[in-house]
Design a protein that fits this description.
Elements: E1 5-11, H1 17-33, H2 35-39, E2 43-49, H3 57-61
Parallel strand pairs: 1-2
Length: 71
Amino acid sequence: MQDGVVVYYLHSNTRCPTCQTIEAYAKEAVETGFAEELKNGKIQWRIINYESPGNEHYATDYQIVARTSCL
């Protein structure tokens, strides 16, 4: 993205109900607080599993050292 912001929600393979709730709240916050920017493409919302093949670089890029413990 050249002129704008990409908002990433990064998660691992293991996802509990709390993780999914946090994702929903984050998405709601972006959609509510930045509706116009999303509409005109100034902001993009992306959900990425950093453990999926090809996405491992996100763990390094964003210095993910641990994930939350899901039960």
